[in-house]
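Lab manual, section 2.4: Encoding a predicted structure.

Procedure: take the sequence of the chain (196 residues), apply the prediction step described in section 2.3, and record the output as structure tokens. A sample record is shown.
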Amino acid sequence: MSIKEKKSKEKIIGTVIELLRTEPIENITMRRIAKDAIVTLSTINYHFQSKDNLIDLAIEKAFTDTVGTWDEVYTNVKGNPITKLRILFKAGAKFIEIFPEIAKTSLIRELQNPSVKDSTTQLNFAYFQALKDIYGNEKSDQDLKLLAHMLISASQIGILRADVLKETIGYDFAKEDDRNYITDFIFDTIIQKRNK
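Recorded output:
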């Protein structure tokens, strides 16, 4: 890929990220992307083949630029395995604070079209590795993967039903203190207190 093509591709992805900050996904058309990125539709189709592919790449880039990859987050954090997993768990919530619409869009898309290659599955793998560090051989790999799924599912419900949480129990996922309480509560309930 030439430098010009690479820059064009990056510009298109950047345009989609900006649109996702302010527009519901159903309002974002390929024509709108082309217009805002100042490229042709054929250029977008050449690089991404479909709107879905483009949206997925934009969401992934927004997350990686904001939080880093799950591997990087876990590897670069100082502390014991529980502290590291807690920080990894909260990193996703931080992304939601910065990009609430992108986060909801991503979750809904992955729940409707699950894949072993989606970011939820990748996150599950990262959580599994962290849980392996915490529990060692005390739990089977199958149980650790189930714990990872439980962490992910609980946080996804918190994100997707944030308005209901706020209305029914008074916690606002958009406020950092409330979000930290919610994520700590989920984490401590699922990953029982341990001395590691």
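Check your result against the sample. The chain has two domains: 3-62, 67-190.
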